[in-house]
């Protein structure tokens, strides 16, 4: 009986594995076509100044409008894009689109007195794209954007401490854009190594903001003190409640981002709700 069960399990497992592989191959093939078929879309999430709560930045977050599967989130396809190296082209598409959108916004009459930045997420794999800095500089020139308006976010846990990665980060920052370390506190990176990287902004991971436990609120305070004493600008992500907002304000976090202020939204919605007189 147990033998029979085991056999069934094996069959079940291998069937499951097979269909998973098939789905993956399917998705990868569709991913290859998605740029040409114009299926990617950027959503934008506001960041507000902690003191005034006015708009000071937006983060671009990719979505895939899949014909059969509906709106897919980055976690559904970015890992696959990274493994298949499609992330290089997708990442370039994101940079171009974000620059185009930002330049459009900044020319609107109602945006005249608003100054804000646009943040773009980069996968660590894109640091192996040798033409990336040139591509970025070309986009900025094409849309007439100064580097000070653009931030590039890299997650702490994906960063390699390799010579090439650090070189590329320096190359990128030479275009005038600013670099942000995303999901800070969740990676392994040793604090002593941090200064090797040209980051100016630390985005404190939502884990530290959301967990109200005693230990973690101590961690949040320690991270903020650390960041400020080393001269980093700080952004807290994942703010969902008033209490979380107040806690971050009390710790002098510079910028706040989270569902309490707004969820990521299409460009049109951001224009209508956040770029008004
Ligand atoms: P991230 O850069 O840390 O972005 C923040 C994520 O947290 C977003 O998820 C956002 O929707 C979500 N978030 C924002 N506020 C709140 C909140 O108050 N509560 C909660 N629970 N979540 C909140 P999203 O859009 O699913 O993106 C997930 C990750 O995918 C991003 O994390 C980023 O690492 C990656 N990603 C997004 N767009 C791109 C892209 O264009 N290229 C690359 N390489 N990665 C991207
Ligand atoms: Mg980010
Ligand atoms: Mg993050
Ligand atoms: Mg994240």
TrEMBL record:
Q: Taking every annotated instance into account, which residue ranges of this chain make up the domain EAL? A: 24-277
Protein name, per record: EAL domain-containing protein
